[in-house]
Amino acid sequence: MWPIRWVLKPLVFLACLIPALHIGLGALNAAGVLHIGAVSLGADPVKVMLHTCGRWTLNFLMIALCMTPLKDLTHWVVWLRFRRMFGLFAFFYVLLHFSVYLLLDQSGKLGDLWQDIVKRPYITIGMLGLLLLIPLAVTSTAKAQRRLGRRWTRLHRLIYVISILGVWHFWWGVKKDIREPLLYVCGLTLLLGYRLWKHRQSLARVSVARFARTDGA
Ligand code: HEM
User: Fold this and answer.
1) N or C terminus of the chain: which is more exposed, having fewer CB within 10 Å?
2) Average pLDDT over residues 163-192
3) 158-174: pLDDT as tens digits
4) Which 3 state secondary structure label does DSSP give 1?
């Protein structure tokens, strides 16, 4: 369907870049290269950049996880054609998040990063999420999917673990107000709960079919 490939997908792609564009322009503003009030990142631009990229990593992970339930609800398989794009945007934003942290927050000092990974559990969890996303991004092509066959599906189930790690990282990172991480916990519980329910349904169907076969034999 050409309108999806040539119109909808490029539009969604451009929309996904808006937070990065905002951060990029905000950074230029903060550096004094631009003077546009509308894209100002406030008094602590590094913190805003870090938080915005972290949020969007999590948002894209959740959006990618929404595609299957949406397909099931609407019986519209088109949703699945956006899953890879959203997953790759999660990877893109986590790389930005990590770069802002390493280059601007820690001034590029790898020793300090290592100290943080070892000493602060929420950084350890975040780092694990980032590392686990790498094999998924590398194998996101149709060619890799064909080459890996069923192993690809198993590997890409890591997205569930990564989302849990991401929400956990957010929860542990906040100092007092847990309302927002709690919202993500609820969303993720719904999304993973739906998959568990679907899995149990299909197991039940298989055992009913087996029972019917043995009963008829
Ligand atoms: C899948 C991986 C990751 C996800 C989903 C994620 C997501 C988030 C989210 C949602 C926030 C909170 C933003 C807010 O408060 O508005 C955050 C904060 C933060 N993240 Fe990550 N992150 C990930 C990986 C990492 C990695 C690899 C690092 C660094 C090694 C990191 C370092 C931080 C830091 C320093 C903060 C700020 C905490 C604070 O201000 O107290 N994150 N992240």
Assistant:
1) C
2) 96
3) 999 999 999 999 999 99
4) coil
